[in-house]
Amino acid sequence: MSDLSTLLPDDLEPSFRGVMPGRGNAPLAFCRWEHPSPRGRVVLSHGYGEHAERYRHTAHWLHSLGWSVSAMDHRGFGRSAGIRGDAEGIRGFVEDLTLFLRQERHHDAPTAPRMVDGVPALALPAHPQVLLGHSFGGLVALLTLLWYPGAMDGLVLTSPALKLRDIGLPMRMLQRLLYWVAPHRPLDLPGDKSQVCSDPILVQRYWADPLCHHFVTAAFPTALEEGRRALLGLGSELDRPILLLEAGEDSVVDPEASEDFWASIPAGFLERHRLAGFMHEVLHDRQRKLAQALVEAWLVRLGNPTPTSAMSV
Question: For 119-135, what is each residue's pLDDT tens digit?
């Protein structure tokens, strides 16, 4: 039972908070946890209903491994602009995240220009940049890799929302009706956070956090489905190392429904683990140290690449 986290998580306050223009110049809040001698940068892409700084304990852990960390509040979440829990399709989220990845890459680039045959050229990245996406943020991260692969050097996914579990016919009919009548009207859907997060302290924090919310519009699940369809049949196009952590007790995402997609990723790029006993929020789970150990080992291998074949555990 020593792997269970039952105490207050070790948090790390951001070293910088800022606002950047997203698609359509929408103001998007972001923060950084800078490391003085970084191995690279991990960019976090949060899930539905939360925001970047809900991962302060994750930033603390990654920082202790020698990584700088950045995170942005998706539009409609946290401190960023937008209707709470709304979407104008999936592409806007992807373009926002790509702009943020490029900003952070530029932030880490050497200040002196690179010289090629005596001619100034664009500076090469000083360190690897890894994108870590959870749930809805994982779906956005996958689409970012598909459409803008040069924005990252590797991808970590926890419970990516490729296929949500069936909500039942009555709820599906209501969602379709609302989509036609009032697609961008937020509805209050609180749910039971203890069914997706096993750590009672982090559940309590969620409900006490004014930047977390449980609003959703009918357009939001439609955007998720749009994103899933955009990925279908294109797994073979993904050409960056990917670590996939799936929750064994996931009440939100159905991992079994995406087997064909994961099987289509070229050999050697995907390392996949199904974590028995974990709930949906893998990095907020009481057993998260087990997940963190897998991520840590993968990050080490990313920095020391050797020819490997795909793994599935």
Answer: 665 555 578 999 999 99
